[in-house]
Structures are given as structure tokens and as C-alpha cells.
Amino acid sequence: MPQICFKQHDGSSITVETNSGQTLMHEALRHGIVGIIGECGGSCMCATCHIHLKDPGQFGLGGISEMEETMLELEGEDITPHSRLACQIEITPQLDGLIVTVASTGD
Amino acid sequence: MNTPKLTIPGNTHADLTSHDTFAQGIPHATFERLRRDDPVCWIERGEGLGFWAVTRHEDILTINRDHARFSSAHGIRMEDQTPDEVEARRTFQETDPPTHTRARIHLNRAFSKKMIATYEIQVRELAVEILDNALLEPQFDAVTMIARKLPMRMLGRVVGLPDDDLDWLVDKGDSLIANTDPDFTDHVIDQVNTDEYRFYPFRSPAGKDLYDYAEKQAALRRDTHKDDLLSLFLAPMKNGETFTDLEFKNAFALLVSAGNDTTRYSISASIKALIDNPDLLSQLRTLDEAQWLLAVEEMLRWASPTMHFRRTAIEDVEFKGHHINAGDKVILWFISANRDGTVFEQPFTININRTPNPHLAFGQGSVHACLGMWLARLELRVVMQELVKRVHSIEQSAPETYLRSNFIGGIKSLPVSIQCVQ
């Protein structure tokens, strides 16, 4: 079970055990991570699971997809070069130890 | 683990391939049995025409996400189509990434949550006008007078179509989606020969009419640019490509069909829920805006009008103890997922405070999730908000009737007797 740390902008953080095969959004919702809403149900149709992710390559994650980038551009706030949508990231054992920051505006 | 008991009355072995089954109402008892006993089940339809029926929420979500192995490019409904029919009728719904992605990115702009939110005032004006007109009479058919009116009138504004054409478009949209129901078409596909129309959307003469209409609308916009959705359809995509004429016409027919009926059936199911749950009306009256968002999700779960979409395995797949062969059809029964008791506590009870509510009414989780989800949510919320403001009590004055379709599930007539708030 990969352990993933969700950090908030106020400095607080929580580390949770996640299930491989699920999306990061799904697992964040399961653990009640504040700021992750997943309003569209994980379809890349909103930006309410917006996170910041540094060094994705270190954990074997690919880059942002064009669809994700467009949706962040349409719907997102607090956009940075590290912005990603948690619904588009599938959890694998390689993500053990990943640290993500929940974007400051979830909607 | 204890085997859950079957709790829903009714036929536990209804024929899911038969449109007539669904004309009697949704066969929930059959879906409940399948979820419990046979969640990935091969259903034979004659030589070479069977499909896998997938009925559990978890399995549907898994397959729906896996577009690499479960393709949409070979058809998305139970209906059997020849490859040339699929090709002629292909919309972006019947494509996989990356082809799908380019169209979807293009269209997402027009249907984004922020963009749709700008329509709220217009939706409310339309809803008020429709309701005030309907409520002039104490008894009426809630589907004809309310649910059937709002979606196309709003879509007309979003798309940029003349008001005078909208009733005609509603009829055409009905003929497409309800191509299995004699109340909506003379060309019922399982009852009369429709070979003449096999290269048109939904194998329907209405598809041919909509092609002609779409061509005229495209010509108008090529002559004079308009700031509307059809102009966006015609504009170049990010990579500089444009839709071909056929892609445009098929996308237009898809808009008219999908934008017409699914929200209608979500509204009619929600009004039926008001009738069947006398406390619901007063509960809804007390909600704030944030609570309404939750209530609408529950109404969508409850209605779940798009009952299935189909995928086709493009390689052999071992799934939950079954060997799915390359080429096998796989039907994802969203209507069943949305009553899955392992995900939804008391799934057969409408609970407007339900949270979380991971329903799959829009095919969530897939790249193909409903493009119009935000518009549907907005229309359903606004019309129900305005309805509960005006209605003191609501009763049913005659039995409802159901669409004859194994694809779209819905109440097609709902005679009501309403007492308005004084």
C-alpha cells in the first residue's frame, strides 16, 4: 500500500495508505483530504482535484496530458508549473513516499 | 462475507436485451440478482451476438477507465452494427484516445463548468416561463409540459439555433434516441426494416433530416461568423484540423439527441420522486445552494437515464474470473452501478443529503464522461428549485409510462395533479 502525503497550504499534512490501481483523487476522497472535491467524478471535467506535484519523474509519473492542461487552463486557479489533476494520476507501488500539495483553491 | 439478500420485488430474470422489458419500468430486481450472483455475465443473443453484462459499480468503473483495452470505436450501444455503419455514423463518442482527445479538448471549452455557469440566469428564465405556463392547469402531463420542454429550449440557446426550429428538433431528437419506441417513431428499428437508413444516426430517417439541417446551419456560419457553439464546432482545433462535413453532421445529430432526452428523463424521475416521497418536497424547500448541489447528484443517481454504454474488448482480457475475448461486447450497466448497495447505503432510497455520492450517471471516470454534465446539472437544479417554490402538493393522476428502450431509461408520461402555493 503506497503511502502518500497530502500537504495543505497552511502547513498541515497527513500521510495516508492508498490502494494501487485507484486514482489519487479517489484515494484522497476516501481519506477525506480537505480541498479535494472531485466534483466531476474523475473525468477530467473540472479542476476540483487540483494538486501541485514536484518531481513527478522521480516516482515514474509521466508529464501532464493535453486534456489535463486544458482543463486546468479552463477551470483552475493557483496554477503553477507543478499543477496536476489528481483524478488523472493512477496510484502504483512506485508512488510510495509521494508528497503532493493540495492547491489553495479547490474550486 | 455474507451473501446479501435480494430485496427488490419483481422479475429477477428479465430479458435485458428486450426493449419491451424496459417499457414496463427498470428491471431493478434483475440487476440486483446479477450484481449479487453473476456480476460479469455473458448474455447470449443468438449466434455471435452476445455480450458481457457488467453490473457492479466497481467493475464498471474499472472497465470504463480502461479505454486501452475496452474500446468505444466499434459502437457504444447494444445494437449490432456492421463496420461500414459504424464508420458512417461515427461521432467522437465512438472514438478512442488520441483521436477522441483532440475533439474533446476542442468541445470541453464550450461545456466547461465555468462556461455553463454563465447560463444560469437564462436557464432560470426558461424554467420559470415553462413552469408558469404548465401550472395554469391543475392537471397535466409533467413530461410533456415541463421535462420535455426545458432541455431543447436551453440547448437551442447554447448551440445558437432559432426558437422556431426547436419543437421540430425535439421531435427529431426523440425519433433518434427513441428509435425503439412506436410513440416516437414510425421506424421502430426492431419492428420494421430500416436498412434504407442504416448509414444515418440511430438508423433513423430523422438522422437524414438532421444531416440536412446541420448542413444549412453550417453554411449560415461559414457565410457569417456567429459566436455560438456550432461555430466552435466548425472552427479549427488546436492542431489546426477541422471536423470533416460528416464528423460535423454526426456531432450535430449527437448534440440534438443527447441534449434532448437525458435531462428530460432526469427531470421526470425527480418529479416522480416528489410524488412517491411526500416529505421530499418540504425537505427540498429548506435547502441552501450548497445542499442543492448534493440533492441534484442524488436525483441524477436516482434517474440514471443513460442506462448503458458498450465497449468492445480489443484484446483478450482476464477479468474477475472470466475470459473476455478480443471482439467481445461489454455492456456497462450504469443504472445498476447506481443501485449498488456496496457503494450506496440504502440504494433504493432517495437521500438528498447523500455524500459522498459517486454515482455514474454521466459515465464518470471515463474519458467519455458526459460532455453536457454541467448543463444537465444546472438545468435539473434550476427547474426543481423553481418547481418546489411553486408547488404545495403533487399527486399522480394516472399511471406513468416508460420509454421502450434498453438504452435510455425514462418516464415518458407522468400525469400529475398539482396544488400550487397560494
Taken as a percent bin, the fraction of beta residues of chain A is 15-25%
Estimate the helix proportion of chain A, in percent: 10-25%
Q: What gap, in angstroms, lies between the N and C termini of chain B?
A: 54 Å
CATH class membership of chain B: Mainly Alpha
Biggest sheet features of chain A: 5 strands, mixed
User: How helix-rich are the residues of chain B, as a percent range?
Assistant: 40-55%
Oligomer: heterodimer
Averaged pLDDT of chain A: 91
Shape of chain B: globular
* Sheet with most strands of chain B: 5 strands, mixed
CATH architectural name of chain B: Orthogonal Bundle
CATH C-level category of chain A? Alpha Beta
Structural class label of chain B: alpha+beta
Give the CATH topology of chain A: Ubiquitin-like (UB roll)
Q: What's the name of the CATH homologous superfamily of chain B?
A: Cytochrome P450
Spatial extent as radius of gyration of chain B:
21 Å
The ordered H/E elements of chain A are: EEHEHEE
What is the residue-averaged pLDDT of chain B?
93
Terminal-residue CA separation of chain A: 29 Å
State the low-pLDDT regions of chain A, or none. none
> Helix count of chain B, per DSSP?
17
